[in-house]
UniProtKB/TrEMBL annotation:
Signal peptide: none annotated. Residues 187-239 form the HAMP domain. This is histidine kinase. It is an enzyme of class 2 (transferase). One of its GO terms (molecular function) is phosphorelay sensor kinase activity. It comes from Halodesulfovibrio marinisediminis DSM 17456. Its main location: membrane.
Length: 470
């Protein structure tokens, strides 16, 4: 069964880690215990030889209670205890009396644990009882015609039973306590994520007004703020696209309506044999078709820039030279409207850019100035630069100042100044803004006492841009 909940995954991971830790404890200490037993068993022949050597030198009478016998045996046991580093060491006589090394007291529970194995002991028998934390070697010895026994007891500082009680059990308890404390905290931490999931689902199903209120300044809070920024941008983009679609429909409908009206009038004039009017209406249709063609072309340019944010092929571009060429190209319009042109050029205005795109932006700024400048008006063109940027200013006289909202929206698609009936697609300045953004520059519009000033600023060299992943 697949675990999908994050809290369930964390709980499962915690349990698995705890189980793995306990298993590792058990395997490790069981292995060490077995290795210790093997080492002791391999040591039995050496210990047996040592015992025979020590006790063979004693001359013990059959009565073990004899004080002299006990003194000699105790002395040997004292030496053996030091050599073998045993905790307890004693001799059992044929009549079950016990002789220990001097000043040695054997615990009762140790004697009780070995009580059942004192009969019929084979040479080198190893007895281990973990529940009593006891390991012992029991050997028959040569005393009393081989009927005596010696017991060597080692109570290790570690044992599997001791470890299970003193180490594993507290580990389990600690793990459970940690789980009891941590799991509610995890659940509380994941609660904002569940809220975020609900908001994202609602947003994905079309409710673009969904927002999250960040509670803490942690990872979840930052994620919530990032979601809100993304939601704002997507909502703005969606609203912009809806407005763009409506504006495109409106802009296309107007010339189509005029074409339809001209076609009907031309058809009527043809019936009336008024061929001069027919030619007039056909010319009107041709003009509207050309206007439609320009509109579609600019829409396509704007769409391509939206889809592809990369600048494309770049090279050196002299903005002063470009402005001079644009002025010469527009000289017929300037002469027809009797516009006064004042130009101040800097000769250090070379930048790295996509020349066709920048030329399009400057051409649109120039066309906008010529379109809105009245007859006998004034246009002032200035180019200047500094170490990092190059700027072009185009001023055109205008009969009024723009409102603050108009200055902001003037670079949006299909934006027009209020109350103006000058023909145009409303996409020229939007293209200027798009080209400027792609070249990491700025474009602004400001009111002046007698007109409007546009300033386009571009960096001399483009910063490195990250290529989109395909």
């Amino acid at each position: 069964m697949e675990v999908k909940s994050i809290s369930a995954k964390l709980a499962t991971t915690f349990i698995l880690i705890l189980t793995l830790s306990l298993t590792t404890y058990v395997i490790l200490f069981v292995t060490v215990h077995r290795d210790t037993e093997r080492f002791i068993l391999r040591s039995i022949p050496m210990i047996s030889t040592l015992l025979e050597t020590k006790f063979a030198r004693l001359n013990v009478v059959p009565h073990a209670e004899h004080a002299e016998n006990q003194k000699d045996i105790s002395s040997v046991l004292k030496d053996l205890q030091k050599i073998l580093q045993a905790d307890y060491l004693w001799v059992i006589t044929p009549n079950d009396a016990i002789i220990t090394s001097p000043k040695t007291v054997i615990p009762k529970h140790t004697l009780f644990a070995l009580k059942r194995v004192k009969e019929n002991i084979q040479a080198g028998h190893f007895y281990s009882q973990e529940t009593e934390e006891l390991q012992a070697l029991i050997f028959p010895i040569s005393l009393w015609n081989g009927k005596g026994k010696i017991v060597i007891v080692q109570q290790p500082s570690w044992s599997l039973h001791k470890i299970l009680i003193d180490c594993l059990f507290p580990t389990v308890i600690t793990g459970l306590l940690i789980g009891i404390i941590v799991l509610p905290l995890i659940k509380r931490t994941l609660r904002p994520l569940k809220e975020l999931e609900t908001k994202v689902i609602n947003f994905a199903t079309g409710d673009l007004s969904e927002r999250i209120t960040p509670v803490h300044d942690d990872e979840v809070g930052r994620l919530s703020r990032t979601f809100n920024i993304m939601a704002d941008n997507l909502e703005q983009m969606t609203r912009f696209r809806h407005e763009l679609t409506a504006n495109i429909s409106h802009e296309l409908r107007s010339p189509l309506t005029r074409i339809q009206m001209s076609e009907e009038l031309a058809h009527l004039s043809c019936k009336q044999h008024n061929y001069d009017n027919v030619i007039t209406h056909l010319n009107s249709i041709r003009n509207e078709v050309e206007e439609l063609d320009r509109l579609v072309e600019e829409i396509l340019k704007l769409s391509k820039m939206d889809v592809n944010s990369q600048i494309g092929e770049i090279g050196a571009c002299d903005l002063t030279d470009t402005m001079q060429r644009l002025l010469r190209r527009n000289s017929p319009i300037i002469e027809r409207k009797n516009i006064s042109v004042q130009a101040t050029y800097s000769h250090d205005c070379v930048i790295t850019c996509n020349y066709p795109m920048v030329k399009l932006a400057l051409s649109n700024l120039m066309a906008n100035a010529l379109k809105f400048s009245p007859e006998n008006g004034t246009i002032r063109i200035t180019t200047f630069s500094n170490v990092e940027t190059v700027s072009v200013e185009i001023f055109n006289s205008f009969y009024r100042t723009l409102t603050p909202s108009e200055l902001i929206s003037i670079f949006e698609p299909f934006s027009r100044a209020e109350g103006e009936n000058i023909p145009g697609t409303g996409l020229g300045l939007a293209l200027v803004s798009k080209v400027t953004d792609q070249h990491q520059g700025t474009v602004t519009a400001k009111n002046r006492s007698d007109g409007i000033l546009f300033r386009l600023t571009l960096p001399r060299a483009l910063a490195e841009q990250e290529k989109p992943k395909r």
